Amino acid sequence: MRLGAFLLGFLVVPLVAQGHPSLPWELSPALAWRVGLGAGAEEDPSNLVPANDGHFMVKLNADGTLRILGPKGLRRLRMGLPGRPLRAWRDAGIPLDLSKESWRFPADTPLSRGFQALPWAGEDFRAALKGVVWILDDGERFLTVVHPATARVVYLPLPPGHDLSVRMTPGYLQLLENSPDGSSEAPRRWSLPWVALIPQFAKLARPEETLVQGSALIPFPK
After folding, report:
1. Which of 100, 149, 188, 219 has a Cα at 20 to 30 A from 32?
2. Residue 107's domain spans which residues?
3. What's the CA gap between 200 and 165, in Å, rounded?
4. How many domains does the chain have?
5. Which of 72, 193, 190, 89 is nearest to 135 (CA)?
6. What is the reported pLDDT for 163?
């Protein structure tokens, strides 16, 4: 037993020295979050982008496993989040009940019609967010954004806040700190204009070219 452990140590050391491959969210570029909230009145997001059923089902487990299933129950995407899901929203900020663990999303969304069709010059960008999922994990360092219609995912690095909530206004994505972590006397606020996320929305709008569909015999292809 001791000899086996000794030899195993020689095998493990080179692997540790080489480091691990970069995780998808570790490659996400930093974002220029602004301190303070951008202009925009708070409204009920359900009135702006009504939620509706659709072709795709998103399943999110408490351990952070995310799956997207097609109309016949075949898997289109399976992945792990940076951490365990803490809060989630759909469309323009409608809260999702994480205890349900599954929701349906449409195939026809503003993003699925093409990146150029989004209202970049309009007064209210929230109509373009129909069919998008926003997930905050318990590490609170990344906001995972999922577009079920194209099975694409992007990660938004967050500022150093604590107990964050997401709010969406016509021109800004906003973060609100619900309770300070002790480093500041008052809850902090950040905002990011939607136009700052042009590269991320362009990726979400592009269908996955190498998407592998499952089958009845192999529902989870590699």
Report:
1. 149
2. 28-205
3. 20
4. 1
5. 89
6. 87
